[in-house]
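User: Structure please.
Assistant: Input sequence and predicted structure:
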Amino acid sequence: MVKSILANMRKLRGRIADHVYPSDSKLAGTSVRVLHDDTGASYTIAGSDVPLPAPGTAVTVQVRDADRVAGPTADAIWIVAVE
């Protein structure tokens, strides 16, 4: 059986941010969007079906868990909707 890339729809509240990689890293000069939720957890944003608001914006989002992607957090999400 092939594991679905997307599973487990849920709602999260938090802030969108840009994670900028340090100058001494392999990815220096690049960034990736993350969501820091209100519980203190952080998620790499693997993708989105909708445009994302500017970094620093407080949001409530509908998400699905995504398989692990390269990023600064252990967990990744796919944003389905921004409320």
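The mean pLDDT is 87.
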